[in-house]
Structure formats: C-alpha cells, structure tokens
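User: Could you check the structure of this?
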Amino acid sequence: MTAPCDNITALTLIQPVRVPQPVPSPIRVLGIDLGTTNSTVAEIIWERDHAQPPLGRCLEIEQPTETGTYTHVLVPSVVAIHHGQTWVGEGAKRLRANVVLRRNKDIFYECKNDIGLRRTYHLAPEGFRSAAEIGAKVLAFLKAAADAAGDLPVARTVVTVPASFQLAQRRDTLRAAALAGLNLQPGDLLDEPVAAFLDYLVTHRDTLLTVLERPCNLVVFDFGGGTCDVAVFSIQLEGDALEITPLAVSRYHRLGGGDIDTVIVHEELTMQLAEQNGIDLKSLDFDQRKRHLEPALLSVAEALKIGLCIEISRLKSFGRYADADKTAIAKVQPGVWSCPCPGYPSLTLRSPRLTAARFEELLRPFLDTDLLYPRETEYHLTCSIFAPLQDALERGRVDRDDVDLCLMVGGSSLIPQVVEAVQGFLRRARLLTFEDRQSAQVAVARGAAYHALVLTLFGRGLVQPVAHDAISLRVASGLLELVPQGAALPFPGPDQFAEHLELVVPQTAITGSVPLRVELVAGREARPVYAAIWNIPAPVNRGEPLRLSVQMDANQCLRLELTLRDQPDAKPFACMVENPLTLVVNPHAIRQRIEEVEESLRAGKVLPQHVPETLRELADDYAELGQVDKAIYYLQQALRLKGRPDASLLNALGICYGQKRDWERQEKAYREAFQAATRWPGPLFNLALSQFQRGQLEAAEATLREALDVEQSPPYLVLRAQILDRHGQSAQAKSLLAEALERFSPVAALDDWALDWLRFAAEMLPDPQRLEAARAEQRRRKRASQTAGGEPGGLLPEIAPTLRRV
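Assistant: Sure, the predicted structure tokens are below.
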C-alpha cells in the first residue's frame, strides 16, 4: 500500500549502491505513453558506476510526411493508408484533411477512445480493423525508432494507460503491444497519473522537499487529448524515503482536448465557413458536417486553440488579460483551407479566426462546477473537468480544501482557463506545473521509463495498486465487507482467495430451488456493482452453511465463488466482475444500444431486408438523445434502401425537421407521408399541430380539415376545438370537446398519446371526473414503468448468528 520501501528511495530514485549486485549493467529501459492525440517514447540507460541517478529522455522520432521528414518527440497517434503506403505520426496527421481518405477506412485517429469496445473498422483492410490493431501500428513505429536509436537491448518496456481503464481496455492495450512486438510482463501497464507523478518526483526533487514537512494530499490532474484522469495520493517524507499511498482514481470519463477541438469546429469554424461561402448551415446534413468538414477542420481548430492559449498565457504573465477586451484578442490561421463535401465541391475557409471571448464561451461547459454530467450532440461531446475531479476526491474521502498539492499534466492542462478553474476549485492547493508545454506532454512517458527501471532493478514498482473503495456483499441484515477500502492489490495476496464462512442459506426448499440474490455494492453510498440470482437446487435447508471465496487482482478484476459447504459436489455460483471500482461514467442505456446496433450493421450481422427497420430504430434512439441531424441521416438512408415512399419513415422525418425548425422541409415530408398512405391522416394532423403551435391558425384549420375528411379521430377533434377557441369561438369549441370526450375509448385502452389528448380535452371543457381518471391512469403507468426491471429479485443470504429458531 505504501512505497517505496526497503532500499528504494523515490526522491533519489536509484542510487547504484542500493541496487542488488546480481543486476547486470548497463541496462536500457523504455517508457511509452500511448496517447489519444500524441504518443511518446522515453528511454533510461542505467550504469552501476555512474554516481548520479539516471534521467529519462524522450526520443526525437523521425516521421515521414509527403513533404519531407518531420522530427519531434511527440508522435501524433494517427495512422493512414495512402498511395499504397502506411503512414504513422505527423505524416498521417497531415493527411487528415485529405477528402479522398475516409475515417476508419484509410485514416485512423483518436482510436484509443474505442479501445476495449466491441467496435470494428469494417471498411479497413486486414490488420487495421480494430483500435488495438491501430494502437499496434503506433507502438511498432515507436519501437522501431527506439531500436534504431541505441545499441543496447531493451530490458523492459512499460506502457501507460488511463488509471480508470477497465479490464477490457487494458487487455486490448496488451494485445496492441503484443502485435507491435513488445513483450510486456505483469506490471508493465502503468496508470498515467502515477507515471506523471513519478516523473515529477525525479525532475522536481527540491520543489517537493520544500513542501513535504508534513503529510500532504496530492491530486494529479491529467488532462490529455482523449481522457481526463484524476488520481489522489497521500504522500509523506520518512527520512530519505517518500511514502506514497494511493487514495483514489476517478472513474473513466470520455473527455479530452480533442473534444474541445471538435466543439470549435462545429460551433465556430463551420459558421465561418457557411458565412464566407453564402450558404445556410442548416442545409448541411450530418454526413457533410461530420464526415467531410470535421476531418478537414480539426487540425485548424487545434492550431487556433494552441496559438490562442499561448497568447492568453503571455498576456496573463504581464497581468494584461483580465481587464482586456477579449473580442480583440484573437488567433488567426492564415491561408485558404479547402473543405469540399458532397453537394459543395468548392467550399473553402479563408483565414479562420478564434477570439478569446468566443473561446471562453465554448469552454464554459467544460469548466462547469454545477452540471457535471456529459452533454452530447451528434457532432460533439462536452463534459466538465470537475466531474472526474470531484469524483476522485469523493472516492478518496478528501475535501477539496484538504488538497495540498495539485500536479497539472497533459497538453490540455496547459489551457489557461483550465489552470485558473482548477486553482479556483482547489483553493488551498499549490499547483505544481512543468516548465514548458513539451515537458507537460512527455512527463507520462518519462515516468513510465522510471517505473520500468525500478521493476528491472528491484522486481517491484514504486506505487502499489490499491482498492479505492470497499466492495461489499448485500446480506439480509445489511452489508458484508469483502474487500476493504485501501486494501493492497492483489487481494488478499498473489493467487490467493479470502474466505467467508458466516453466510447461510436463507430459506428451506423441499422441491424446486432457493433463489439466492448475489448483489455486490461499492463504497459508502453502496453503488450497485453486480447482481445475479443463484438458484440453489432443492433439497436445501435454511441455515445450511455457505462458503464465499473472493479475490481482486492488480487489474481490479473481482472473482467470486459461492458453494454449499456441506455439499462439495453441488454446482457452485461463480462470477467475474471487471473493474467494479472504475466504471465508465459517460454512456447510458440508449448510447450503449446505439453502439451495439451500429456495430452489428458495420459487421454485416443484420439481414439486408431488416436494415431499413434497424436504421429506423437507430434514428429513434438518436432523436431521443436530441441528436436530430443524425436521426435525419439514418431516416434518409432507410428511405433510400426502401426504394419507395414509406409513410412511417417520412412522418418521422417530418418530426425531426420540426425539431430543427426547418418548417419547409417539415411540410414537404408530412405531405409526402400522407401521399404514401392516404388512409392514414397522422402526418396531416402533425402538420396541422405544428402550424397551430406557430400561430398559423388558418393554415392549421385547412390542414386539419384534410385529416378529418379521412378520420374523425377524437384527438383531431380536440385540436380542432383548440383552433376554434383560439379564434374566440368558445361555445363551438366546448361542443366539439364534449363530442371528442364521448368518442374516446376507456382510459385503460388508450395509448399514451391518446391519453394525453383526453387529458387536454378534460382540462379545457372542463370535465373533472374524466380529468381525474386520465391523471390516475397516467400515474399508474408511471409507477409501473419505474418498478419494471428494478430489483433482481431473489432472497439475500443471511449471517448465521441472525437466524432464529422456528
């Protein structure tokens, strides 16, 4: 739980005299930061006869481009296939704006966001069809450069991952390393915040010594291109050794600087593009904006962001930013940027510009301290940086005013507004920063190299993983703690299981079975982690003893087994829960369903005759998420595949156009829908309702008459009454409402839509009896929906001493 110990000293890291004699010399190790946006490789060469501790250095990597070789320590995590050649790094990144290349077919970037997911790049050639395979291309590129940079063989390589990565994500990272020819050993995946902290320990020893006169709480805030990782440590100087106790890491948040770039593209640059080219932004559909314009403009957005941040930092250093006119502070990217897309082959963006005022406006949701949930459109994701920060502090049981130090790491942590916001939130903390932009971006790789060296020399790391929350089993009398908070991992030890013998069967069964509920929770708030039913076959008696075995490994994979102690041959209950303490925060049920369906479509698992129906389901899900453009895109694709007008699809298209306030296209879609099925006046009713809500009473009345000529539906009569009432014809309206109420079926037989219209009619007339009946039915349905699929059922196990004689 604490490290270093014995002869490992963190502040001096490695002193030759402390290294065991059998260790050979010299030794070369590598640390690799496989990042979402950029990747880096650092090396350390250790020799026994050197008096000074070794320092890690990041390798300058030669990266071929179409215009020559570009050399830098940062290698963009981009892979492209172009002119029969595989490009990695800067050369691939410069091809991102090439309209011929299609994302996840010929060019691949930000693939780390997909690692661990069941997502394939089905259009890509063999060897490029998963995030792990793309990661392998980047790792192989770095490995080849490192091999060419030195004659010494590499003794060990450590690759970093976000601290919050789940087991599937870590497994995919290991697979990527194996595909790249890296032979990673146990312990060779290191959490990124820990790596950054190790680098700071070595490179800023004197700074830390001045603040470690007493125990300190340290936050590592690692805000990179694709993730925002937060780790909380307790650190204390004991003699010449530093005790490091990990307290918590944040759960996985899909949030990074790349999300800021995407927001700049869609909320600023596309507007400039539309204005300069004299087009209506609403005329650009999802495919044009997301799959053509976004790749062409992402590099522009990133350059504007970085350039503006440098200027803001400069002005802040002179105290000239706070009171300045922020509309006058701007970064301009000179030149003409070609942005062709279907239907607009000659679009160009000239000298794109980003002001400080607009940048601060776009940053607002990323710096919100109140609304900490992710907000997503079809074009971009926004989430507050304080979501992972507050999450980690709560899980570590550390108040923000008790944080003494905060280490800022990652390229996005250099954004001046981010620095200011974090400092304002952690009011009493001293911010620790690296001297320059590059040091903040390469700290993780260097820290990984230090970890690789310590593993090679001593066989163990500087910081040991711990359980950041307690894991408990819910029992009839409360909770039974299985893994204590702060327990060193693996728990209870390498290849060991902790046994609990106090549990008993809660019920007797002569026939059938006893449904035992196995429910795991985490933390003080008892967050649900896992729930399942173990049907214990009869005959079994209440009070029959159970044996519970539990283990949590260093990757936070929890294994649990329940058996009947007196029936060793009976089939046991066993489960494995991946990373119960580092759950993904962003996705919810609809988003997960969308990803599964889209993957099925990509993989060709949906029969051709079912594809239009599946696209319709996707459109409905996207519409429920508020991603209207994407819903429209899928509805259009479904219509194209149908090859004929479909009233239901066209009606849904009309609803989506209405949400965009595109009234012309809305009316066109609704009327096409009615023409496709003239016996169904639903689209005409929807059009009349839209016209009524916009105050176009005459048009609404005319359209509604067309619908009523086909069907005298009660809701149609209610809308007609609303139009009459708006015209001041209240007597006629009430007469029509009374007629409508008589036509409605009993409330239990109505669908939710018709029940709403019944309630409207009863409120307008008024009819208190029918109104209460409608409201009661709606309350009943709400309660039913809330309880459906809730508790997993079954009986909780009991603790033996709580049993009573019966």
